[in-house]
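User: Can you fold this complex?
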Amino acid sequence: MDMSPFQIPPFQNASDVFFKALQEHAHSQKYKKGKILFVHEDRANFFYVIQTGWVKLFRETIDGTQSIVDILPAGHLFGETALFTQNLSPYSAEVIEPGIIISIPLKILKKEVESNNKLALDMLASMTRYRHQQDREIEHRTIQNAPQRIGCFLLRLTDQNKSGPAIIHLPYDKTLVAARLGMQPETFSRALAKLKEKTGIRIKGATVELNNLDQLSQYSCAACSSEFPCKDLQAAK
Amino acid sequence: MDMSPFQIPPFQNASDVFFKALQEHAHSQKYKKGKILFVHEDRANFFYVIQTGWVKLFRETIDGTQSIVDILPAGHLFGETALFTQNLSPYSAEVIEPGIIISIPLKILKKEVESNNKLALDMLASMTRYRHQQDREIEHRTIQNAPQRIGCFLLRLTDQNKSGPAIIHLPYDKTLVAARLGMQPETFSRALAKLKEKTGIRIKGATVELNNLDQLSQYSCAACSSEFPCKDLQAAK
DNA sequence: CGAGGGTTTGAAGTGCATCAAATAGTGTGG
DNA sequence: CCACACTATTTGATGCACTTCAAACCCTCG
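Assistant: Here's the predicted assembly.
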C-alpha cells in the first residue's frame, strides 16, 4: 500500500508498529460522487484519510435541512474524533468529488495514540489548528457579508506562496460552495456578481481569475480580525 | 493553594509532579469586571482556570467590531492552546463577571503534556468536545432564528439532571448574551419577547422562568440536528 | 439531440440591523 | 435614604441583505 498519504500531520511521528499495522489493515478505495461513507450517530469503526477527491462532512435536521460541518480536500483526515466520543460519528460523510479514500480501523490509531506521546501531541496541534479555523469561521459568518465571504474563500484557494494574479477553479459545485459559506445558491450567484463588480475579478463558469489580489483582500478582509494571508488557515478549508 | 479547581477535566490524570509545580507557580487572583487578561496575538506565557466568575474570549477588527469566541463559566480553562501556536494568543480575554482566576505558566503544562500521555489524551478528549460544540454553534447560527437560538441557550442553562419547571437567571448582561448568540441587543430584546409569546416563558429582568421545558425545546430544537438535551453540550457554553 | 441537473435571473417577502429615542435599572455621593 | 448620572434595556421606524418561490437558461453527458 502507498504510504505517501501518511507523510502528513499528524502522522510524521507515528511509530513503525503503526505503519506496519496500516500496511495490514488500512484499506484504499476509489469512490464515486455521492457515496456516503458513514452517517451521523452511526457506530464508528474507522477513520479516513483523503488521498484524492473531496469529502463533505455534514449533519441534517429532521426536515432534511443540511448543515455543512466541513468540506475537505486531499491530505486531510476525518472521523478520528470518534476515538473520544464512544465511537459515535459526530457527523455524516459524503464523497462530493470522486477520489481515493483510505479507511483505517480506529483501533490502530487508538493503540498508537495511547502509546506514542509524540503522536498525541501532533494530534493536539492539529486539533488546535482546526479549532482556530472554526473560531474564524464563526467570525466570518457573523461579520462578513456574502460577497466578502466569497472573496475570502477565493483567497484561501490561491497558492499563498505565490503573489501576483492567480487563476483558480472552483473545486466543487457552486451550490456546495454556497452551502459551505452558509448561503443559498441564488445568493451565491448574485454575491459573486457583486464581488466581480467591486474587485474586478473575472469569472467563466467554474474558473475565476483574480487579477488583483490586493484589491480583493482589501475588500474581503476589511471585516475580519486578521488580514490576508489569514495565518493558520489552510487553503480551501 | 486550593487544588479543587483542578479536580476537573482534563486534569484528573495529571501527575504529582504537575500538582507540585502548581503549588509553587500557579497564581490565584480576584479580578474586577472589565479586566483584560491578555490580548489577541500577545505573547502567551500562562494559561488560566476559572474558579469563579465569567470570562469572555473575543477578537476584534480594525474598526473595533468585536466577535465573541466564547464565554466561559467557572470550571473552564482557556489559553492553553497557545502551547501549540508558538505561544501566540489566538484571542483576547476579558473578565465579565468578577471572580477568581488562576494563572499557570504554560511551561508547566507543556512539560506535563509531553511526559504524561494520559493528560494528553484527556486534553484531546476535551478538545474534541469543544470542537463539536463549535460545529453545533455554526449550525445554530445557520439554521436557527433569533428566538430559537435564545431558547436553546436557555435550555442549556438549565440543570439537565432535573426535569420540570426551571428558574434561571442570566449569568451576564443581556447585551453580552446577545453578542454570544450573534445578534444585536435590540434583536435580542425583541426575540426574547417573541419567545415568551411562543412558549409561555416568564421574564422578569434577568430572571427567566421556564414552566414548560418540552414546549421550549420543541420550539427551539426543531431547527437543529440534535434534540434536547443536546448531548455533549455543557451548560452556558 | 434530448433529459436532467446546475446556475442564473426576476419578483416578492422576511428577519435582522440600524438609527433614534424613551424607559428602566443601578450605583454613587451627599 | 434620596437625587443624580450613567448604563442597560426596550420600543419605534426604517432600510437592507438575504431568503424564498418561480421560471428561464445553460451545460454536460448519455
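Chain A touches chain B through 46 residues (CB under 8 Å). The CA atoms of residues 147 and 191 of chain A lie 5 Å apart.
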